[in-house]
Amino acid sequence: MTLSEFQDSIRAGIPETLPAPKPYDITINHAPKRKDILTPEQKELALHNALRYFDPKHHETLAPEFAEELRKYGRIYMYRLRPEYEMYARPIEHYPARSRQAAAIMLMIQNNLDKAVAQHPHELITYGGNGAVFQNWAQYRLVMQYLATMTDEQTLVMYSGHPLGLFPSHKDAPRVIVTNGMVIPNYSKPDHWEKFNALGVSQYGQMTAGSYMYIGPQGIVHGTTITVMNAARKQLKARGLAGTEENMKGMLFVTAGLGGMSGAQPKAGVISGVVSVCAEVNPHAAHKRHDQGWVDEIHEDLDVLIPRIRKAMEDKEVISIAYLGNVVDLWERLAEENVHVDLGSDQTSLHNPWAGGYYPVGYSYEESNRMMAEEPEKFKECVQESLRRHAAAVNKLADKGMYFFDYGNAFLLEASRAGADVVKEDGRFRYPSYVQDIMGPLFFDYGFGPFRWVCMSENPEDLAKSDAIAAKVLREIMAEAPEEIQGQMMDNIRWIEEAGRNNLVVGSQARILYADCEGRTKIALAFNEAIKNGEISAPIVLGRDHHDVSGTDSPFRETSNIYDGSQFCADMAVHNVIGDGFRGATWVSIHNGGGVGWGEVMNGGFGMVIDGSADSDRHIKDMLLWDVNNGIARRSWARNEGAMNAIKREMERTPGLKVTIPNIADEELIRNILK
Asked: Where are any strands of DSSP class E within 432-559?
């Protein structure tokens, strides 16, 4: 397809003449069939809802086709409307647009749906089993058409993948405002999601899927790398050893999930210098990560795998191994054979336990998918039995010295609901969330989080230039940084300096870097200057994972190290989005859902296009300050010591910032009063 044909296809939106039906591509990793949850009357409603995108003259053709999709797949995806062109992030100038900001958003959307990036690209699901960009291909076409025609004085309003329309605004307003899954709280159970999604009225946007900010596995790799390195240091410290790279070699890290969470763990294990073993039941996912170079070896036979693990540990290899099989079988075998596991976790998509996020032991991948759709209650029973066995094996290894942490994808939550032995007598989980032990106190409380950027030229040279700029800025900041954040600075300087040779790019020319407010702002301003003087050839999109200091409220993940009772309150995420929206974000998003599931978390995010202009400088200074310090201030009010120190430093640095600081009551006084 020529560039002109591609642009014409974008401008056409839903074409006047329907495209021919598309064959079902069996080479692509597809979403499992969703369970049949709608009543006959609701199925009629689902068809009415789907057909409203099309001229009535097409209804006779499309109605039976959509009814068959609903019957066969549990959703109406409108496969016929899937574009003819390849889906990937093109250079920004290839997109037909009246607004450069809108063109940047088009690039980000297409990257989210790139088959190299997306988990189930033809079902418009980017990651996590159900993290969707859109509900159907008609929505995609309409959105791209709107973005191609809008100006910098319009705002596109998005309701769970549906484009409500273009509304007049102004140049400093967001170009797009996104919501996903914003249902009434009493209707946020998993079956509610199944029903509303099947009706075509709501979707689960995950975090960065539904807000167009996903950058492939790299985003999760960095968070996992930091977690693994600091978990390894905790283990080494407990043994009286220094947390050096040399001492980390030969340590064993065991986890699961190469599909829904992008296969981050193997790469993180390699960067951390350990032996990593990751279980995955989906052959498509395992082989995809191996083909991409994210996994070094794949083994299907535990009789072969166990000796291979022992040898790798003995030889202190830095290697990533995938086990193509069920993680429960792996954990039980490791416990049975007394293999010393240093670090254990789980990155299966257990926020989505009944619809493909976790597969029960003892059943093939194919049989599980059949049972999921046709015998959902039996499937649920099998999953819960697996979770009980899973937890039992983990407990055996933890009793022998393994440090196990929940990566925040609801393993402990769902295991506890299944009756597994993961809850202590005081009602708390037996194992910490990675946020509680590592990310929260060491990073989030100090304002460090997953700052990310995408080079709109799609030129690797621009990305390399941005890496060099970021490293230079961080080294300058580190020279004056207080001792309490020196370690965080060093880890991130090492990351950014090593990023290029670790081949982290999958999809768009993007990078992630954990930085605090000062770091994010100074790096962004340096990028803007480089664009202005031509060192970087095109605009850059700034963003972050929602998994950050301020963007997400969840008692099981991002705010699990908040102990004043407010870990269940979502004020922070909501304020984050509102504040970003009037301080210069190009688009903002807020979702019900994220890494721990529908109804368990509230996520707020943003994207910002910088183009070398004075307006971009102003937006950077205004918005990034709020985007980070909103969360630090909330964490400070929760009496988190690191956050209290961080916000005091920020008030000294920033005129006009005045934050309410908590007074600390004497614990003994309170205990005595309440006797």
From this structure: 449-455, 510-515, 540-544, 552-553
Give the up-direction half-sphere exposure of residue 586: CA atoms within 13 A in the CB hemisphere.
28
Question: Does residue 139 contact residue 162 with C-beta atoms inside 8 Å?
Answer: yes
Tokens of 515: 């930085």
What residues does 159 pair with on adjacent strands? 162, 179
Residues 416 and 312 in one domain: yes
CATH number at 660 reads: 3.40.1770.10
Please list the residues that pair with 515 across neighbouring strands: 449
Domain boundary among 389, 409, 432: 432
Q: Which residues 6+ apart lie within 8 Å of 436 measured at CB?
A: 560, 561
Handedness of CA 221, 222, 228, 231 (dihedral sign): negative
CATH for 296: 3.40.50.10730
Same domain, 64 and 183: yes
Close Cβ partners of 362 (under 8 Å, ≥ 6 residues apart): 326, 382, 386
Is residue 518 located within the same domain as residue 616?
yes
Which residue range forms the structural domain that includes residue 89?
Answer: 3-127+134-199
Query: Is 408 within 8 Å of 435 (Cβ atoms)?
Result: yes
Q: How far apart are CA 108 and CA 537, in angstroms?
A: 18
| Averaged pLDDT, 526-544 | 98
Instruction: Answer whether residue 29 is part of any domain.
Output: yes
Per-residue pLDDT reduced to its tens digit, 584-610: 999 999 999 888 889 999 999 999 999
User: Across residues 665-673, what is the average pLDDT?
Assistant: 95
Whole-number Å distance between alpha carbons of 649 and 482 = 10
Average pLDDT of the residues in 497-518: 92
User: What are the beta bridge partners of residue 588?
Assistant: 177, 606
Q: In the chain, what is the straight-line distance between the N-terminal and C-terminal CA atoms, in Å?
A: 77
Q: What is the CA radius of gyration of the chain?
A: 24
In a domain, 207, yes or no: no
- Tell me, yes or no, whether 572 and 624 share the same domain: yes
Per-residue pLDDT, 262: 60
Statement to judge: residues 158 and 236 lie in one domain: no
Domain match, 312 and 419 both: yes
Is residue 145 a part of any domain in this protein?
Answer: yes
CB 631 within 8 Å of CB 624: no
- Sheet with strand 343-344: strands edge to edge: 297-299, 319-324, 275-280, 252-256, 343-344, 403-404
- Residue 13: how many other CB atoms lie within 10 Å: 19
Confidence (pTM): 0.92
- Looking at the fold, whether 275 and 417 belong to one and the same domain comes out as yes
Strands 403-404 and 343-344: parallel
**Residue finishing a domain among 410, 432, 454:** 432
| Spatial distance between the Cα atoms of 264 and 233, rounded to a whole number of angstroms | 20
415-424 pLDDT tens trace: 999 999 999 9
pLDDT digits (tens, 9 = 90+) for 30-40: 999 998 999 99
Do 383 and 247 belong together in one domain? yes
Q: Name the domain count of the chain.
A: 3
In sequence order, the 6+-apart residues with CB closer than 8 A to the CB of 579 are 623, 626, 627, 630
Query: How far apart, in whole angstroms, are the C-alpha atoms of residue 62 and residue 117?
Result: 30
- 673 within a domain of the structure (yes/no): no
